[in-house]
Amino acid sequence: MTTAQRLLLALLIASPATTMAQGAARPDADPRIEKLVAAVSERRMRDLVTKLVSFDTRSTLSDTVSTTRGIGAARRWIFEEFKRSSPRLQVSFDTHRIAQQGRITRDVELRNVMAVLPGRSPRRVYITGHYDTVNLRAAAQPGRAPAPGADAQANRDIDYDVDAPGANDDGSGTVLTMELARVFAESGIEFDATLVFIAWAGEEQGLIGSMAHAQALAAAKGIVEANFNNDIVGSSVGGNGIIDGESVKIYSLGPEDSMSRSLARYIVRVAATYVPSHRIRLMAREDRFGRGSDHSSFTANGYPAVVFREANENYRRQHSADDTMEGMDFTYLTQNARVNAASAAAVALAPSAPNVNGERGQALIARGASGYDASLQWGASPGAVGYRVYWRDAWTNDWDRSQVVGNVTRFVMPNVSIDDYVFGVSAIGADGNESLVSAYVSPVRRMMEVKLFR
Ligand SMILES: [Zn+2]
């Protein structure tokens, strides 16, 4: 490319958003996202958690009739609160009839509470947390203790109506979801993707509500750009006394170039622009040891997903009557909510991530006519005005080089070995927002069993 061509390209790529933001502290920022991030209310999240814990328990198998106590009262209130927060939200119960299995000790009608903010396209960006709670100590009450080695929660005699306030697990993720539903709906921004805000039930019984949802979505061939799941994100004081209100962890399922990992890297980049005071610590694993959350229901169905986890947990409070308001730090929760808001808004404003695979699923990368070039191809993303090609050494995790390549679906880098680098490509929209990076992945070689003769 000549210098003149490069200049022309740079001009073509310069976006209205970039132009509008000039003179601002952050020239890369989209002012609409800055405004949306600033609208996240710490006070409202505090009020919402205060109300959530007042239902005493939100166990999936607790009372559904009472108007003041149990999961029935809680889900009806979440439903109404979604509705109250904006007329633009389409609010519904996502209901599933779950048969008795494992920790679901009787047939139960499970209800996720869902608020949808329709975008220009049906592809979805999810922000989620689970509103159900559990008190494991109740499962170990005298006379109700499980047999040694048995799953305490599969015990049919558990008293599901004992107190399980769940302020942090996962009142924190639930109110983050509810607050972002309000902020996104009231922003007036027209997003390209459809935003889906869900408070899950059945998480404590094995991710039941999210799995029922993701399973149905996959069967209906729904498209998900990203799932931002939040579970235990509202306390800055660990059980060991260590305080960290400046960072949050993100876990994502590999391999290293899965779209879940791409999403994790994306959040770091966006957060650096919009919430520079908060540090994102990426964890190259699905979750903590022996623990899980609803992002796994998405990855299990082939959808990109991550989970946010607070920097230092207090295990003593979790899954007990002690998970109360006293353990919460709403300033910290607000920072985590802002990171979610900025990244989800950027994904939802950007075009879809380019498809870098052919019809048979093969990566569209080759050595070009010379046999020694990097020749990349991808499918056009609707609404894209340009693309950015990324590359890095084949042993590293973070993209260290990139180049904007204009509105093309093919790019050749002469004398660059496709075997020495990992390549990826993102799509850039008219307003400058960029999609996730789709990486060209070399598949694991399929080996045949060697047959021997006697
Ligand atoms: Zn949880």
Q: What report would you give on this structure?
A:
With 454 residues, the chain is α/β, with parallel strands linked by helices. It folds into 2 domains: 3-15 and 354-439, Immunoglobulins (Immunoglobulin-like); 39-349, Zn peptidases (Aminopeptidase, 3-Layer(aba) Sandwich). Helices cover 28% and strands 21% of the residues. It is built from 11 helices and 15 strands. The chain has helices at 3-13, 16-20, 31-38, 42-53, 71-85, 136-139, 171-186, 208-219, 259-274, 295-300, 330-349; strands at residues 90-98, 108-117, 124-130, 194-200, 224-230, 247-252, 279-283, 305-310, 365-366, 374-377, 384-393, 401-406, 410-413, 421-429, 438-439. The strands form 3 sheets. Strands 1-2-4-3-5-8-6-7 form an 8-stranded mixed sheet, with helices on both faces. Helix 9 (259-274) links the parallel strand 6 and strand 7. The longest helix has 20 residues, at 330-349. It is globular and about 75 Å long. Mean pLDDT is 93; it is low at 7-24. Residues 130, 169-170, 203, 231-232, 293 line the site of zinc ion. Zinc ion binds at residues 130, 169-170, 203, 231-232, 293.
Show the helix and strand layout:
Layout lengths: L2 H11 L2 H5 L10 H8 L3 H12 L17 H15 L4 E9 L9 E10 L6 E7 L5 H4 L31 H16 L7 E7 L7 H12 L4 E7 L16 E6 L6 H16 L4 E5 L11 H6 L4 E6 L19 H20 L15 E2 L7 E4 L6 E10 L7 E6 L3 E4 L7 E9 L8 E2 L15
Helix pairs in contact: 3-11, 4-7, 4-11, 5-7, 7-11, 9-11
This protein binds zinc ion.
Zinc ion binds next to loops.
